[in-house]
Amino acid sequence: MITVTLGERQAQKAIDFITGLKHVKDPWHGCQFELLPWEEQIVTDIYGTLKKDGTRQYRTAYIEIPKKNGKTELMAALGLKQLCADDEWAAEVYGCASDRGQASLAFDVAVEMVDQEPELKKRMRPVLSKHRLIYLPTKSFYQVCSSEAFTKHGLNVSACLFDELHAQPNRDLYDVMSFGSGDARRQPLYFYITTGGKDPERTSIGWEVHEKAESILLGKRNDPTFYPVIYGFDPDNKRIWTGRECEKYKGKGKEAWRDKKIWSMVNPSDGIALRKGAIEESYASAKGNEADELNFQQLRLNIWIKVKHRSGCRLKSGIKTQELLFLKS
Q: Which residue(s) pair with 163 in the sheet?
């Protein structure tokens, strides 16, 4: 007889809810949401790892992944799961980012997912003028927030979906949403899903949380409530991060980021959510232009960029524009 644990049941419940939703964008519009292996592992670990009292062990999930690997759709699905299927009365789910437009991306996808599911739609009341979805059976809501952090004190957060943490201009919104906002909840959950950033001074909140995630994965720091996942290349330490593991890059030189082997390893949705050949096309387009190459490194490989921008300088071409100053680590 096979015994199924409570953790396994909770993980399967989350998977069943998410895969019951449908994709909203071509070429998969109307198709069932099929979790890719890296996504299913994250969902299984977060919802299936429980404490002795039966509540979730993890309170924070940090997921750092290059662009176009499907993070917006995953955030939308997770937001709806927390809104409708987390056994929480009057749940408060917040979608956060540096500006309302960015924060609305996952919310808008969630709205379209609801529109495709008649049984879910009839239980939902959208208030689109306020970027809010209300789930009527439990009087819960999913609300979009942006960086005007001073307006967010006093929230009773059950879940927070924080998009592109690297783009936060300061740590105000992060502090307000993270510290104490969910203390009245049984098992609050905070998702930080982001690409790498441009931070020459290494002082941003994005870099701070990235460093914590990396330290936990390397065994240098312990926080049993924090679940880190990183897909990206660390050229300083020659590490290729592939989720919760990394391997040493054996090549040499500052041009290691041009190695196609790295590209495929740090983009787990390559050839599926991320169109086959798209990375190569991006590289070909960026090649030879310093600014574009830096964008490629940041957005396609999750390399944290160490550059400063200084306006009013002349490049060799004689055109007055911005000069990129490379800083030593």
A: 193
